[in-house]
Structure formats: structure tokens, C-alpha cells
Amino acid sequence: MSILYRDILYPIFEELQYDKKSLASCLRVNKTWCEIVIPILWRNPWEHLTLRRKKLLLNVIISHLSDGARTSINQHFGFYTNSYKRPLFNYISFCRHLNLGVIENVMNAYIQYEEFRNDILRLFINENAEYTHLYMPNYRDYHLFPGAEQCFSEIKFLRCIGKVKDNTLSMLTRTCKSIKELKFYTYGNDYNCGIAKLIENQKGLFSVNFLNDFYDGGSSRKIIENSLIKHADTIQYFSICEQPETKVLTSLVNLRILELISANPYIELRWDNIKDLTLPSLHTLIASSIPINCLINLIERSGRKLTKIYYHHNRSVIDNKEIIQAIYQNCPNLMYLEFLYKNENSIDFEKLLINCQYLKRLDFCIYFYYNVYNVHHRSSFPWDNLFNILAKSSPPSLFEFVFKFTNDNPKLESLKLFFDNWEGRHPISLKFKKESYHYDESGYDGLIDLIEKYKKKGVVKKFIHYDYDEDLDFLEIYKAKKAINNPESVGNIPENVVNNPENIVKNSESKATSILSRFKKIFFN
User: Fold this and answer.
1) What is the DSSP string of 396-445?
2) How many percent of the chain have pLDDT more than 90?
3) With 70 as the cut, is the pLDDT of residue 218 above it?
4) What's the pTM value of the predicted model, to 2 decimals?
5) What dihedral do alpha carbons 312, 316, 318, 321 form, nearest 10°?
6) Closest Cα to residue 397, out of 428, 365, 352, 421?
7) This protein's superkingdom (predicted)?
């Protein structure tokens, strides 16, 4: 029964692998849950690290060292507080993502002696380690660590500096044959030409990403781009932060996702090598600050299967109307669109809503509206007209709207009219991504009352103000602050939790149980 219990729990928790908060709430339930969740949480412990979390993580890493090494580190660096405590789990053995860049940065901040740094690196680079994802900086010759070739041999994902050291690149080329995703980053104007050989040696390369910092072109990248031709049948994702040096994109006939970003949006480039590009399998297009005519041509030639389009342009929005026209004339299957809304293009925007009947979500870039359209005068955003168009012409599948980078909130009267006009349709979801954390709480009381009224009527499903994390809703934070300042307004918080904070742990267990119930239908329905 215990084995069956684990077999059921494991795929459930795998579904939650990117929801770290929910997974963490499961740790306290019982020993079995904890033993299943810990390896998932430690698969990639390098994400979303604040300064405090980096220090805590370093403490845990150091706890895996020998007694002598831990004592020595504690004598030299007083921040380590658990020098005589061994961890309950061998956490490092669960790592499948090795981010050497993060490790090096954390060590640089807290550990000055090279001997101690090498001790820590040997915990990760050895013959017993197994990794699927490798993030390789250019700090040192990692190939010199015993077992490096063996622990890197099965990686599926590699991110490294474009000017990676020859010896390290030679090791990766010799041992890594199954890389599916490649990301290269360069600060200068040249790559290590040996990267071309690394690319050619792979089997089934799926994704390639060139991350550039004001790249000026170079002969080495032409060599690297041409090496991709060998994988023309398998590459489905391609991203580049500067104009391509060759016409390699024309050979990627099965490309499904294309990301074209100008590293310096204030320098006008021609992007000649994509002007006549046709990609028959393309379903996602992400473009920022590339020439408008190139973007329109690409949509017209490759738009039939496009389901997602995200585009920004920092320099000129004169042709915004032509872009909207190209979309609704050539992209009948569009589901997601992020773009700059201009009030004078409202007629064409309405045609887009009518022609693109599979739309599910629209993201409006209000930031670009203010900073490009209203260069000298920051006027109010035309909420009333936009809400009227959305209520009148949105297809039945469209009910999620995101307004990015705005502190200009619609008036309550505008929202009320919008909700009244929306009544009878699928409950609406509205998200407002604010320009900064210094948001204005004035008017929140009336807004909260209005939202609650229309939630009860089934008109509004979700309404949030957030910065970067949608889970941190400013409206909920405001309500929590009011509850603290006015205990009588606690309302929905259970009385046993208010009177006895220890019950918060039980609350966590209850949350974990509810997570399990969400997935019961996978096995029992």
C-alpha cells in the first residue's frame, strides 16, 4: 500500500514542479510527502534567489562538506551557523540543474579562499553527479575537476558564454552529444568558433538562443549560424538578440517559435536577412524593435498557423495600424496577442476581434503608449473606448485581459459600465501590471467593493494589481494591511487561526491536502 501511495503522489507533485509555494506547503504533511517533495524542490534550487536566500543556500551547501572543511570555513567566515550539523538529506544529489554562475557569484560574495571554493565545487562536479541542465560561466577551467566529463555527458540543456574557454569547450564537444537546447551569451563582438563544432556534434538539436549585448557582427557568428543547417529538420525554437548574419532562418523549415530582439533598440538596423522569410510551421512570433516592414512581411508570409504574437517597438509606432491589419488579414488562428493599443486604430482593432475568433488573451502595452505615443504629454489612457470595444466585439473565447506598466487606473464608473456590458458572458479576468512597486492605494476601498459585487454576480473571475509576481496582488495586500490595523475586519480568517497562530501549520497541511484533491480525478475519474 505504501508503494502504491508513493506511485500516486509522485506524478501529482511532478505536475506542481514549477509551483514552489504549493510544493513547500506539502513538506509538513508527513514523512512520505516530504521525501517525495524534497528531490523535486532541489532539482533546480538556483531560481529566484534573493541575497538572504543565497546566504541560506550557501549554508546548506557547506553542510555537505567534511567535518574538517566545515570547521575551517566556520573559523574564517562567521556567517556559517551549522558547522557541526549534517543535513537530513543529501540535497546536492537531487540537483539536475547545475548553475555554476550562481555558485561562483555566491562564493565570491562570502568566501575569499580558493581552496574552500574548490571544495564546494567538488561537491557538484564529480563522477557521481548527474545533470540535465548546465549553466557554464567563464570563471575557470571546469574540465580540470575529476569526473567533469562523466557528470556533464548527459546534459540536455547548455547555457554558456559565447567566448567560452577552449579547453572547456573541447571537453563539452567531446562528451556532450544529446544537447537539445543551446543558449550562448556574449559581451563582446565575437564568439569562440569552436561552438560550431559543438553544434554539429549534437543529435536532435531543438532550440537555439543567441543572447547578445550590443553585438556588432562578426565572422565567427556566421560560421556558427551556418552550422545550424545540419539541424534544419529538428530546430523548432530560434531566438536572436541581433540581426542574423546569414540567411540560416530560411533553412529552418520546421521552426515553430521565433524570437527576434534588437539588443540596442535605439540603433536602426536593416535586418535584411529576414525580409523575404517564410516559415510555414511558425506558431509563435516574438518581436521587439525590429523594422516594421520586416515584421509585416513575416506575418503576411507565415501567419496562417500563428497562434501567439508578442511585439514591441521603442522607436516608431507610425505603422501600428498596418501591423494590426496584417494580423487580422493573415492570422485566423491567433489565440494570444501582446501589442501597443492606439485609440485612433480602434476600427482596425475591432476588425481584429471579429476576424480572430479563437483569441483567448490580450496584453495591452500601456508603457509604450505613454513613452512613445505621448512623448511630450502623458494623457489619460482611453479606457472607456477600449472597454466598449471589448464588450461589444470580443469573441466568446476571449475573457482575459492584461494591461502592462500603468499606474493610470480606470475610473470606477468606467469599470462598472464595462462589467454591466459584459454580463452574461464568460467571467472576465483583468490584470494590471503596475509601473513600479510604489503604487497608489487611494481609491482601493471603492474598487474592492465594486470587484466583490461583480464577483458575486459571476461577471468577474479575477481582478488583480501586481508588479512582477501575479501571486502578489496589491489589492489582497491592501486588504491584509487593513485586517491587521482593524482586527474586526478579519472576516474570512478562521477564528482558531486568529486566536492560536500555531494552527497556521495545520492550515498549511489543509492547503496541501486540497492540492492533492485537485488531482484525484487523474486517477479515480
Assistant:
1) TT--EEEEES---PPPHHHHHHHHHHHTTSSPEEEEEE-SSS----TTHH
2) 49
3) no
4) 0.83
5) 0
6) 428
7) Eukaryota
